[in-house]
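User: Can you help me understand a structure? I only have the sequence.
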Amino acid sequence: MKKLLSLLLVLVLALSLSSIAMAQEDWEIVVVPKDASNPWFVRMEVGVNEYAEKTGLNVYQRGTPEIDATLQYQLIQDLVASGVDAICVVPVDPASLEPVLKQAMDAGIIVIAHEGASLENVHYDIEAFNNEMYGAFIMDNLAAAMGEEGVYTTMVAHVTNASHNEWADGGVKHQLEAYPNMQLLEAEPRVESEDNGDVAYNTAKELFKKYPELKGIMGTSSFDAPGIARAIEELGLQGKVFTAGTGMPADNAALLKSGAVQYLTLWDPALAGQAMCALAVKMLEGEEISTPLDLGVEGYNALEFKEGSDTVLEGQGWIVITADNVDSFGF
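Assistant: Let's start by predicting it. Here is the structure, written out as tokens:
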């Protein structure tokens, strides 16, 4: 009798494991970036594809042809209608996505975000770091380049972009606390680049011409600091005005080596994509999400909830890129 019970238990366990494996094979997890062409999100897709290959799961990235909040909304609406199991999104305009993300959650779809800390209709949002602290980190680099003195301003992709504005706010707050000889440009304390290098370049040229006292621009979008650096080179202002902000290593190696920009900051979007997928899998498996949370992804091994939030998880993923180390990253 005992042998029979043991055999039955083994059979039940085997069937359960088989059912779980079959369920995993049927899962469809989709990563929706801001767009499909931006080098940042091309790199994210590399990470998503690596995760799919490593796990054998049906995980893939699907983006819009350009950065457009309406197109992103429509894409997510299509995914909801098709009945995917999880949507991992980097929102263009978080507020505009709330209705369609609510539709997804109401349909039983797991919703994970990145760079969407303000979202309400989301199970979790993963940030590579505390946004305020990352802004302070960028400011430290800008301050070092400026000699900790002079007038500066901040640049974001859009004033509706949650994370970019949190970084800029964090940078300004840190400047007020740590760098008393620096001053925020009162006339234009925040400008937009529209997530476009040419816009960042033209805006920077106009600012430097309009405000001769302007010594630095803190960038946030991956296009900001590189675009500003191009303006610095064209105007012959190397060593007189400065920028720091987020940027891709390979794309900006020449600017770093020329001295047009001294520091770029970054987290690896490939790893961020993998972290979103890993969290979606944990939820689909019914695992309880508690901190410190280890997603098995570098920089996302000890996630903690943002203070006052039970949805925003923060990692430790930032890095600094200089002329000395720019060739070491491989992307």
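Now, to help you interpret it: The first strand starts at residue 28 and ends at 32. The radius of gyration is 22 Å. Let me know which part you'd like to focus on.
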